[in-house]
Write a structure and sequence with these properties.
CATH topology of the largest domain in chain B: MetI-like fold
Largest interface: A-B, 95 and 94 residues
Radius of gyration of chain B: 24 Å
CATH topology of chain A: MetI-like fold
Number of helices of chain A: 13
Number of strands of chain B: 0
Number of strands of chain A: 0
Largest sheet of chain B: none
Oligomer: heterodimer
Helix content of chain B: over 70%
Shape of chain A: globular
CATH architecture of the largest domain in chain B: Orthogonal Bundle
Helix content of chain A: over 70%
Order of helices and strands of chain A: HHHHHHHHHHHHH
Strand content of chain B: under 5%
CATH superfamily of chain A: MetI-like
Order of helices and strands of chain B: HHHHHHHHHHHH
CATH superfamily of the largest domain in chain B: MetI-like
Largest sheet of chain A: none
Distance between the termini of chain B: 26 Å
Number of helices of chain B: 12
Structural class of chain A: mainly alpha
């Protein structure tokens, strides 16, 4: 019976190996300089619009969301009564289970009519998906900071706000960074909400959030069934980039969680 | 841990200001979540009042069927594999190996779903068609039309393959949640049973799994919620047909794929129907997620009562 459990474990891992192998083998022939420099409209074509589009969208979203998320977590952990904290924890946990397509639909109904089909709408949609991740992870990290640290600081006459910023947050800094990285990597891979808000474009867009932008997931999605081998190859290359980014960020997160004392 | 001491009487003291800033952030978060809830709830009203609810289900039977079918297939794939793998990781694997294997399984969860979709379109789907699907169709297809092979089916599209793909994608979630739950079963329970002469496997079978049953059910519910909402990977392999397919091996659609592919260009009538479908998805996944939390609380109570 031990054998059947072992087989199940192996079965759980096979897809990962098959997937990584396939993406690497298919993507490598198409990794050239043009891929990173040129747009789909250039000759030879590239996917630089998608690469830098993804980075711009996700970075804008994380910059907007992480201050709110971290501060909200500080309030819930340091100030709120245990009752309020445990309720909000439940609500945020439940929100984490909401499918990203539903959040995309919400953005389509509420944000797109205001901002139009644009990078800005995409940033809002991705930001909404990141917010609960930042809040919950930061909250978990802050909870691991021992009360004795706070008490020591307060006993020395340090005001509460300085204690929270310079003692609690500093102790938990590495963990808070982990929360932000985790949310960033989740945001990079989101496709469905972008499909409803940003839609993609062939043009390069630098920091103009009022018009449409492209993103790696959108390129992979729209190129996935291409008959032309160069286009399909670029889908694999985009998948490799996205996968390497997501895996690298997650490995960084895990390495941090193992090494640091807090979180 | 809560700081409730007010040190200064001045309204503009740094302490009050900082507290107010964090409170504002918390309120902003809560407001965003509340707005989502209210907007989605209101958005469904036009579609649900225009015709009766039964009619609504009838006219949208295709995507509703596809959503339920893919999610159930996914659970059938991920449930047994995920739970057994969790049992192996907690009960049998040497500690170092368990750490490495857990790490690898969790990495699957980090891979974006669109990458899974690309892989499925170009590789997995074709393999599944020629192996599992072919075997089921040639064994049961003759007696059950619902499981018969569709001879003129294009290469990469069927409800079954979409469900199988989602199953692979939710394995890490099932492993992670089941592992936590199995680990929470008190050692004293196991020791008692082993002390009476039971083997390791008998202990798992008769003590560990029954104790963890509620928790594991909850884990499967959460995984089901994830499977129901999986969008982009499913869109890429399910085929996009709006009708209820005659066989699991024919193209179909799910609520999520319908929204992703048709919402941007939909006319107002279709739009309100799609939004109503999305709202159903929202509330079903909310319900499953809540059920999971409650089940987890229940298991914690049982294990705590033993300790």
């Amino acid at each position: 019976m031990r054998l059947s459990a072992l087989i199940a474990t192996i079965a759980a891992i096979i897809p990962l190996i098959a997937l990584i192998y396939f993406v690497i083998v298919r993507a490598i022939p198409w990794l050239d300089a043009e891929l990173f420099v040129n747009n789909p409209l250039d000759k030879p074509s590239g996917i630089s619009n998608a690469i830098f589009g993804s980075l711009q969208l996700t970075t804008a979203a994380i910059l907007a969301v992480s201050p709110i998320g971290v501060l909200a977590a500080i309030y819930l952990n340091e100030y709120a009564s245990p009752r309020v904290a445990s309720w909000s924890e439940l609500v945020i946990d439940v929100m984490l289970g909401v499918p990203s397509i539903v959040v995309g639909m919400f953005a389509f109904m509420v944000v797109v009519p205001q901002l139009g089909v644009s990078a800005g709408s995409g940033v809002v949609a991705i930001g909404i998906l990141m917010l609960p991740i930042v809040v919950r992870t930061t909250q978990e990290v802050l909870r691991l900071v021992p009360s004795s640290v706070r008490e020591a600081s307060l006993a020395l006459g340090v005001p509460v706000w300085k204690t929270v910023i310079f003692v609690v947050c500093r102790t938990a800094f590495s963990g808070i960074l982990t929360a932000v990285i985790l949310a960033y990597s989740r945001g990079l891979g989101e496709t469905a909400p972008l499909l409803l808000t940003v839609r993609g474009t062939f043009a390069q867009n630098w920091l103009d959030f009022g018009t449409t932008m492209n993103a790696l997931p959108l390129t992979i999605y729209s190129y996935s069934g291409a008959a032309d081998s160069r286009t399909l190859g670029q889908a694999w290359a985009a998948a490799l980039l996205l996968m390497v980014l997501a895996l690298a960020l997650n490995i960084v997160v895990r390495a941090r969680t193992v090494n640091s004392r807090v979180a | 841990m809560a700081f409730n001491i007010t040190r200064s009487r001045s309204l503009l003291s740094p302490d009050r200001t900082f507290r107010a800033i964090t409170l504002m952030a918390a309120v902003t978060t809560a407001t965003i979540l509340a707005i989502i809830f209210v907007v989605l709830a209101l958005g469904s009203i036009p579609a649900l009042t225009a015709s009766s609810f039964v009619d609504f289900i009838g006219t949208n039977a295709g995507p509703i069927f596809g959503t339920v079918a893919t999610a159930l297939i996914a659970i059938a794939v991920a449930g047994p594999i995920g739970i057994l793998a969790a049992v192996y990781l907690v009960e049998f694997a040497p500690k170092r190996l368990a750490v490495v294997l857990t790490f690898i399984v969790e990495l699957i969860a980090a891979i974006p779903s669109v990458v899974f979709g690309l892989w499925a379109v170009n590789d997995l789907s074709i393999r599944l068609r020629d192996s599992v699907e072919w075997w089921i169709a040639s064994t049961f297809g003759k007696f059950i039309p619902f499981l018969s092979e569709d001879s003129n089916n294009p290469a990469a599209d069927s409800v079954f393959r979409a469900g199988f793909l989602v199953g692979i994608m939710i394995i890490p979630l099932v492993v992670a949640l089941s592992r936590e739950i199995i680990r929470a079963v008190p050692i004293s329970l196991r020791e008692g049973y082993i002390g009476m002469g039971a083997t390791r496997w008998e202990t798992i079978r008769h003590v560990v799994l029954p104790t963890a049953r509620i928790g594991i059910t909850g884990a499967l519910m959460l995984a089901l919620g994830r499977a129901l909402g999986e969008t982009i990977a499913v869109t890429m392999v399910i085929g996009g047909s709006n009708d209820v397919p005659g066989s699991l091996f024919q193209p179909g659609s799910t609520i999520a794929t319908r929204i992703a592919t048709t919402l941007p260009e939909a006319n107002p009538d279709v739009k309100s129907v799609l939004i109503a479908l999305g709202v159903i998805l929202f509330f079903v996944s909310l319900g499953l997620s809540l059920a999971m939390r409650l089940a987890a609380r229940q298991t914690a109570k049982i294990t705590a009562s033993v300790k």
